[in-house]
Amino acid sequence: MWPRSLVITSIFRAAHTIKGSSGLFSLDHVVASTHVVDTLLGEFQTVIKPLDEVFNQVKCISGSTILGSGEVALILDVPPLVHEALAGAAAASRPQRTAPHAETEKV
Fold first, then answer.
1. pLDDT per position as a tens digit, 16-56
2. Which residues 6+ apart lie within 8 Å of 67 measured at CB?
3. Which member of 61, 75, 78, 93 has the lowest number of beta carbons within 10 Å of its beta carbon?
4. What separation in angstroms does the CA of 10 have from each of 5, 6, 42, 45?
5. What is the mean pLDDT of the chain?
6. CA–CA dist 60, 5 (Å, integer)
7. Does the pLDDT at position 88 exceed 60?
8. How many distinct helices (H) and strands (E) make up the chain?
């Protein structure tokens, strides 16, 4: 069985090729049909962009992508994110130590 991403990419490329070729022969109904397929499958494709040097030191973010709406979305790096969350939860559950109060004598 082929990986899902390879199947989607193959269908996307075939639909895109058919759409372009149909346009050459003025087959507008085929262009319209393949445009729908092209658009739908395009939603499944994600291109991951590396982060700029400014973001390299930010924990738990591994990259970014551009959504279909044109907005930029950050891609979370899940294992470090879970590690940070568990470490924070463990720290919060530990009892807080307080320094003993020095008693002062009144003279």
1. 788 888 888 888 888 888 878 777 766 666 666 777 777 77
2. 73
3. 93
4. 9, 6, 12, 11
5. 76
6. 25
7. yes
8. 3, 2
CA distance 92 to 73: 30
Q: Is pLDDT at 86 greater than 60 in this prediction?
A: yes
Report d(CA 60, CA 84) in Å as an integer: 8
pLDDT at 15: 80
DSSP state of 53: G
Looking at the DSSP assignment, which residues form a beta bridge with residue 90?
Answer: none
Question: What's the CA gap between 12 and 43, in Å, rounded?
Answer: 10
As a whole number of angstroms, the distance between CA 65 and CA 47 comes to 6
Both tokens of 30, joined, read: 């085929």
DSSP lists the bridge partners of residue 64 as 49, 74
15 near 33, Cβ under 8 Å? no
In percent, how much of the chain has pLDDT > 90?
0
